[in-house]
Amino acid sequence: MAAEYVFVDEWDVAAPQDKVFDALADARTYPRWWTPIYQAVSADGPPEVGRASHQRFKGKLPYTLSTVSTITALKSPETLEVEVDGDLRGRGIWTLTPQDGVVHVRFDWRVHADRPLIRVLTPVLRPLFRWNHNVAIRAAMRGLEPYARGEDVSTLRAVKPHRAFDPRRVGCLECAAWVAYYRREWLSFLRAAILLTRHTFALPWPATVRGAWLVLRANQLWAPFPDNDPEGARRSMQRFYTLVARHHGEQFDPARAAELEVEWWRVHRHHQHGGSSADERALVNALASLYSYVYAVPERDVQVAAEQRALAMDHSDVWVKDGCDLRSPLILEERAALVRSYAGLLAAVHRP
Predict the structure, then answer these.
(1) Are the C-beta atoms of 330 and 319 separated by less than 8 Å?
(2) Which of 107, 182, 191, 189 is nearest to 334 (CA)?
(3) Is the whole-model pTM more than 0.90?
């Protein structure tokens, strides 16, 4: 039996919805903006129900896939469904939704691997195949927005891996870290921090483990209330940001990044313990300042990311006051807001 793969990818695109939809619906455009993944696409005409396109594409792994995608549903500029046959067999659904001034893109991809080599190796190498899919999706995230905005995509440069994270994965991991933090389950927190550091900042494994340990120590030093150690927390976070800056060749000052990091912790704690609505705005501003500085983007571009993260904290604060019940639906609300936050951050990082 062919191996089944199920993927759900989501991100935000700052471009007109009709242009985003047109780019996704007309597979003939893929080699222009979904590079270097799509090598060749041919079709007999523009997209319409029943139209088939022949596609050749390749990720990082040493094989090229050939498929035929047939449009089965087309509702511009909202939904597109295709049936796929060839080396992969199954269905893909693109869903576009306007949200906070951007277009939220969701791709549901359920396929079976019919190529013999992939089918045989799936039980052992499934995580590697998922990684290969994520590489392809990051390329789509990089190219779709400028193409839909009518900009030149011929000179798109490779994106540093810490600027190509998966919002859904890192949002879920951060939620797990928050839950462990407030329950003072430090071993669980370290495990979540290791994975979060790996998938958000793309450090080598030795640096990932060290970075996660530094984040853990910073949180432990900050956690006691009211007698915590903010200077110690800043020192740990400075060492963490030094790891990131050195590995990826970033120009930001790790000491300043650590100051901004711990500053939003301070603002959040004040808001958490009886602050006003003005404090909530201050929290959004503190988060935006950190994002803007570390990723070198304007603060206005990271407002959505900061607002959604602040919303996640509101859900978390209520959950803490209610007793940190693992069965609480507030955890799901918190997780969803964090995913939206990271999607907004990713869109800001790649905005021209």
Answers:
(1) yes
(2) 182
(3) no
CA distance 178 to 173: 9
Number of residues in the chain: 352
> Cβ–Cβ contacts within 10 Å for residue 277, how many?
8
- Do residues 156 and 147 lie in contact, with contact meaning Cβ atoms separated by under 8 Å? no
Max Cα distance, the chain (Å): 70
Q: Which CATH class is domain 3-148?
A: alpha beta
Structure tokens given for 155: 């000179």
Which residues, 6+ apart, have CB-to-CB distance to 351 below 8 Å?
Answer: 14, 145, 297, 301
Contact 59, 133 (CB under 8 A): yes
**SS3 call for 79:** strand
How far is the C-alpha of 352 from the C-alpha of 149, rounded, in Å?
10
Q: Is residue 341 classed exposed, middle or buried when 0-12, 13-18 and 19+ CB atoms within 10 A define those classes? A: buried
SS3 174: helix
* Coil/strand/helix, residue 287: helix
Domain extents in the chain: 3-148, 162-349
Cα pseudo-dihedral 343, 344, 346, 352, rounded to 10: 140
Query: pLDDT tens, 114-138?
Result: 666 555 555 556 677 788 888 899 8
Q: Are 94 and 111 in contact (CB under 8 A)?
A: no
> What's the number of CA atoms in the CB half-sphere (13 Å) around residue 333?
14
| pLDDT one-digit tens code per residue, 290-333 | 999 999 999 999 999 999 999 999 999 999 999 999 999 999 99
